[in-house]
Amino acid sequence: MWRKHRALFASIAVVAAIAVAAVVTRSHRSAEPEAHAERASPQAPATDASRVSPGVSTTSPPTTIETTVRRPLGPKAYQIARAGEVRPVGDALAHVEALLSRSRSGDASATHEIYLTVLQCKTFMSDEADDLAASATAIGAGAAFLNKSERLLNECASLAATPTLYGADWLATAAEQGSAEAMLIYSSYPNEAVGAYDDLIAHPEKADAWKGRAVSYLDVLVRDGNIDAVAELARAYGNGGAVDRDPVAAYAYNLAAQRVDPAFVAAPVMRSLEGELSAAQRTTAARMAGRIYGSCCVR
Questions:
Q1: Secondary structure, 3-state, 100-148
Q2: Which residues is 79 bridged to in the sheet?
Q3: What is the mean pLDDT of residues 151-179?
Q4: N or C: which end of the chain has fewer CB within 10 A?
């Protein structure tokens, strides 16, 4: 899903889409019938100054998703598809402060919107903005992107100077509160969720905690009907990551995704996995895929 958002479009309207892609993509990407871990109890993951807890309610409500980003794919299955600006034009700090009351009361959508606002500011105030500018210039939208970048730098200045908000771990909190989009981002990008890869290598306990929570979130999302989570588990089982590599499970999750839409899975991926499996393993995977599909996609 999100890692596919880097597509470039040749219009000023799409310069905004490039920015959204960077903001949301920088952080997304693809119920196990028999082997997933039990959902872990959410805990505040941040202990250092750069990833502090925002101090809001993180009780575990039902999964929530904004109707504007929910793309139905059938009676139950859906995909997360975000487009357009992540927030209204204007001062970013004022926007975050307007959302704080809802966030502190446990509103996952408000907390996730704060996360996206902070992430947008961090993106445009980092070296990544240079890469985005180069991409925009390549499609003839460099001037429009420069104007947008200058506006965002001005709008983000006050928020960036407020470390209690700018440095808080809004992603983990939004995921704990039940934001489907935040849960997917958290589970797909460990560096966005718990820190840089070098830090994870130095502190393997952080990686272990992320793995348990990521699998739990993806399991919840699959049962909720989110096809992005099905695809993320297919990727994880195919490559290893939040779970150990398992080509049978990878094939099964890809088969389930294909039943929703064949375009979700590239043919070379399936051929590669098929080449690793015996006939008996493919039969096992097909049965597993049926259970996954029944869990995610059938009411």
A1: HHHHHCCCHHHHHHHHHHHHHHHHHCCCHHHHHHHHHHHCCCHHHHHHH
A2: 71
A3: 96
A4: C
